[in-house]
Amino acid sequence: MNIFLQRIVERIVRVGNLSITGPSGTTRHFGDGSGDKVHMVIHTRHAERAITLHPSLAIPEAYMEQELDFVEGDVLSFLHLVYRNLGISWIDSTWGKMVNSLRLKARPLQQWNTERRSKRNVERHYDLSGELYKLFLDDDMQYSCAYYERPDMTLEEAQLAKKRHIASKLRIKPGQTVLDIGSGWGGLGLYIAKTFEADVLGVTLSTEQHQVSTDRAHAEGLDRHVHFELRDYRDLTERFDRIVSVGMFEHVGVNHYKTYFDKCAQLLKPDGVMLLHTIGRVGPPTTTNAFIRKHIFPGGYIPALSEVMPHIEKSGLMVTDVEILRLHYAETLKAWRQRFLAKRDKVKEIYDERFCRMWDFYLAGSEASFRWQDLVNFQIQLTRRNDVLPMTRDYIGKCEKALEMHEMGHQPDRPISKPEPASSSDKPTARPARRKKVTGKD
After folding, report:
1. pLDDT (tens digit, 9 = 90+) per residue, 274-284?
2. Which pLDDT does position 408 carry in this prediction?
C-alpha cells in the first residue's frame, strides 16, 4: 500500500477492524479492533492509485473490475465501518465543506436534464432487461421505497402498504382522473384504477416499462381504464383531479424544479390533490455520489427539503402535509439485495460478472446511505386550495384500514382485524368500474 493511501486511511478509520492488503502483498491494519473484521485486498497498483485520488468512485470501480475484493466482510460491512468513522455527514468537516462547495459549482452541468437527455438517462437504468428486475423486486414490480407498517412484513406486504398509504393521502373519489408521473411498471396506476374506480394516465420515458405496463393493463382487462404513454410530463396539457409521482423526482435535477412544479400546478385542477414521493436528504444540499452519477443514475440528484420548498411556494401549489419516512428504504434495499444475491447466477447469465459487482455495490451503498447516513424519503402532499382536504390527518388512517379490509376480503386465509369506523367518503369503492379513456380535461 502506498504511503499516501495509508495516511488517508489512518486519518479516517479510528474505530472498527479494517485490514487492507495492497498489490505488494503487505497487509496493514486500521482501527481499534472493535466490531466485525473487514479485509479488503487491492490487486493492482492502478486501483491503488485511483483509490488514493478519488476513493468514492475508484473503490466501487475497482470492485466492478475485480481489481479489489473483500476476503472478510463484504461491501455493506465495509461501508458501515467507513460511515461509523465519518459520522452522519462528512461535509461537516472543514475539508468536506471545501470539497462540497467546489462540487456544488459543477452541479448545474451534471443535472442539465433536457427532454432528450432525460430520455437517454432513463434508458441507461430503466431499459435494462425486465427479467433482471423480476429477479429481485416484489410481484408487482414496485421499484421504490416500501412502507413497513410492521417490522415483520414481507417485501410484498410492505409494497402493498406503500400503495395504500399513497392512495389514502390522495383521497381519490370514483370517476376522478389521475396522472401518474413516472409510472414505472404500472403497479400503482393499476391499483388505483381497480380500487377507486378512477381513470389513470401513466407517463414514462422508459420503453421497457411502457411495454410491461401496457401488457399488464391488457392482461388484467383494464386497458380501457388505465392508459400508459411514452411521454415527457412537460408535454402534457390535460388537467387532472389527482397527480401522483413516485420515484421520478430524483431524475428531475435542481435546474428543472421550477419547471416541474409550475407544470404540476398547471395540470392539477383547482380542487385537486397531488402526492410527491421522493428520496430526500435531511442534511444540507450536496452533489450526487460520483459512482451513482456515472454508472447507475446519470443526471440524478437527491434533494434537501430546503431546495424543494421554494419552488413549490412560487408555483402556486400549497403544501398540506409532509411525512418523512426513515429507514423504510433501508429495509426495502436490504430485501432487494438479499434477493439479488440469491439470484446472482441468473443475473450473470443476463449480463456479466462486472454488472453483478456493480449492482451489488449500488444496492449495498444505497442501503448504507439510508441506514447510516442522511437519506430518507419525503412524501409531500400538495393542493391549490386550503379547503380541499380535511383539517386533520385522521382520514388517511381510516382509508388505509378500509383498503386493507377490502384486500383481505380476497384472502380469506388471513386474519381480519376490525378497523376503526370510516366515513363513506373515506372508503374505497370495490365495484368494477365503467371508465372512458383518460383525457383529464374539464
Report:
1. 999 999 999 99
2. 85
Residue 389, all three cell numbers: 382536504
In the three-class reduction of DSSP (H, G, I as helix; E, B as strand; rest coil), residue 19 is classed as strand
- Of 134, 144, 155, 65, residue with least CA distance to 346: 134
Q: How many whole angstroms separate alpha carbon 209 and alpha carbon 211?
A: 5
- For 182-317, list the strands marked E by DSSP: 199-204, 226-230, 240-246, 268-281
| Global pTM value | 0.86
Q: Phi, psi at residue 433, to the nearest 5°?
A: -95, 150
Amino acid at 164: R
What residue has cell string 434537501?
Answer: 304
What is the C-alpha to C-alpha distance for residues 31 and 12, in angstroms, rounded to an integer?
A: 9
Domains in the chain with CATH codes? 3-86 (no CATH), 116-426 (3.40.50.150)
Please calculate the CA angle 113-114-117 and round it to the nearest 5 degrees: 75
**Contact of 385 with 271, CB cutoff 8 Å:** yes
- Which helix (DSSP H) or strand (DSSP E) does residue 363 occupy? helix 353-372
- The per-residue pLDDT for range 198-241, each reduced to its tens digit, is 999 999 999 999 999 999 999 999 999 999 999 999 999 999 99
Average pLDDT, integer, range 339-355: 97
- In whole angstroms, what is the distance from residue 226 CA to residue 185 CA? 12
- The residue to which cell 414490480 is assigned: 141
Q: Quick check: 329 and 370 in contact, CB under 8 A?
A: yes
Tell whether the model's pLDDT for residue 24 goes beyond 80.
yes
Helix (H, G, I), strand (E, B) or coil at 227: strand
Query: Is-contact 361 64, C-beta < 8 A?
Result: yes
Which amino acid makes up residue 406? H
Cα–Cα distance measured from residue 189 to residue 191, given in angstroms and rounded to the nearest whole number: 5
Q: What is the mean pLDDT of the chain?
A: 88
Tell me the β-bridge partners of 381: 275, 321
Whole-angstrom distance, CA of residue 187 vs CA of residue 180: 11
Taking the C-alpha atoms of residue 55 and residue 205, their distance in angstroms, rounded to an integer, is 33
Give the DSSP H or E segment for 329.
helix 328-342
